[in-house]
Amino acid sequence: MLEDVASDAEIVEYGLRQAKIKFTCRRVDTREDFLQELERRTPDLILADYSLPSFDGLTALRLAREICPETPFIFVSGAMGEEVAVDTLKMGATDYVLKQRLGRLGPAVERALREAGERRQRRAAEEKLRESEERFRTLFQTAGSVIGVASPEGLILEFNPEAERVTGWQRQEVLGQDIFRLFVPEAYREAVQTEIAKALAGEPTRGFEMPLNLRHGGERLFLWNVNRLLGEGDLVLGIIAVGQDITERKRQNLGACPFTWTKSSTKCAASPGICAPPSWKIWAWCRPCIISSMNSASIIILLMPLISRDWTICLPKRPRLSCTASSRRP
Questions:
Q1: Rg (CA), the chain
Q2: 149: closest CA among 177, 186, 181, 190?
Q3: Confidence at residue 255, expressed as pLDDT on a 0 to 100 scale
Q4: Which residue has the higher pLDDT, 257 or 210?
Q5: Which residues contact 40 (CB under 8 A, 6 or more apart)?
Q6: What is the 3-state secondary structure (H, E, C) of 249-294?
Q7: Distance of CA 275 to the CA centre of its chain
Q8: pLDDT band for position 234 (50/70/90)?
Q9: Sheet harboring 259-261: ordered strands across?
Q10: CA-CA distance, 74 to 61, in Å (whole number)?
Q11: Fewer beta carbons within 10 Å, N or C terminal of the chain?
Q12: Residue 73 domain-assigned?
């Protein structure tokens, strides 16, 4: 408390006790003592008279704003006109209370302390958010997986360096572009839109396979995890998709006897639930016995876009499969 009259300081303390505010108070009345107290420890609140014989409240306010800018500063004075009071608020004072109306002191102190606490909480939350954003940015930039962020409407908002490397597109070229038109093969768009709608509704999508269109032609197969991004007040900002390139793994793990899709229908007779555009190339992996006796339907078919091989598989409407080969690999 900056107050040169001891009796006035006792009246102010009495007003605080009447408001049931718990406090400890250090009273000073000179510039030197005021600075010494501020530098010793940051107070929770400063109460200051406006006029003192060897010091003044406005100078004290400027010093307090330099040393402890977040500490509430309330003028408690017996001689302060309305114009002067408004000027002090413009300079950074939290409030002012006339000594003739100390009934306002308790509510003014409680409000000042409450608002100061709220500001500290906001700063702490903002600092945590900043640190979280920095960690996310580091992960986003250095991840070995393709990571993309899109708006609820499907417009690309972010695109990490690995996505640039794999697809051939630069980040600035794709921002604002339609993710479906640019990257999702036409045959997959309806299914992908369904998965994104589920993610936006709060149901994360994990482990679905979808090829990605590349800038200079061709596709690569990815395993995708998709989740929604929430902002303040749980506002849905969009979705984040993380993709792992599994093209080579599929080739290595499932490669046996490659075939080429020749049937004009887009339905696979062996697996009626599988559809593919007629222009697609297909890999089929069979047990060795099936190659010689094609009377079994136990063929595993994996849709792999734009892969050409020497074998040809024909899928008639009957369950029995027939196979012809132009050449056989050892």
A1: 36
A2: 177
A3: 56
A4: 210
A5: none
A6: HHHHHHCCCCEEECCCCCECCCCCCCECCCCCCEEEECCHHHHHCC
A7: 36
A8: confident
A9: 259-261, 311-314, 322-325
A10: 9
A11: C
A12: yes
- Dist. CA 144–CA 103, nearest whole Å: 65
Same-domain pairing of 241 and 295:
no
Boundary-marking domain end, from 207, 228, 249? 249
- Cα of first residue to Cα of last residue in the chain, in angstroms, is 94
Q: What is the CATH number of the domain that holds 159?
A: 3.30.450.20
Q: Are residues 227 and 290 in the same domain?
A: no
Residue 2 gets which letter from DSSP?
B
Residue where the block lists tokens 């090829």? 211
Token reading at 115: 């608002």
330 within some domain: no
Longest pairwise C-alpha distance within the chain: 111
Residues of the domain holding 199: 143-249
pLDDT at 162: 95
What tens digit of pLDDT does each residue of 150-193 get? 999 999 999 999 999 999 999 999 999 999 999 999 999 999 99
Beta-strand runs (E) in the chain: 46-48, 73-77, 95-98, 146-150, 156-159, 205-213, 219-230, 236-245, 259-261, 282-285, 300-303, 311-314, 322-325
Q: Which of 70, 73, 74 is nearest to 120 (CA)?
A: 70
User: Tens of pLDDT along 39-66?
Assistant: 888 899 999 998 888 888 889 999 999 9
The amino acid at residue 9 is: A
Name the pairing type of β-strands 259-261 and 311-314: parallel
Number of structural domains found in the chain: 3
Q: Is pLDDT of 254 > 70?
A: no
Q: Is residue 242 part of a domain?
A: yes
- CATH number for the domain spanning 22: value is 3.40.50.2300
Residue 111 has pLDDT above 70, yes or no: yes
| Residue 119, token pair as written in the block | 């500001």
Query: What would the pLDDT profile of 279-317 be if each residue is shown by its tens digit?
Result: 333 333 333 333 333 333 333 333 333 333 333 333 333
In one-letter notation, the amino acid at residue 254 is: L
Q: What is the mean pLDDT of the chain?
A: 77
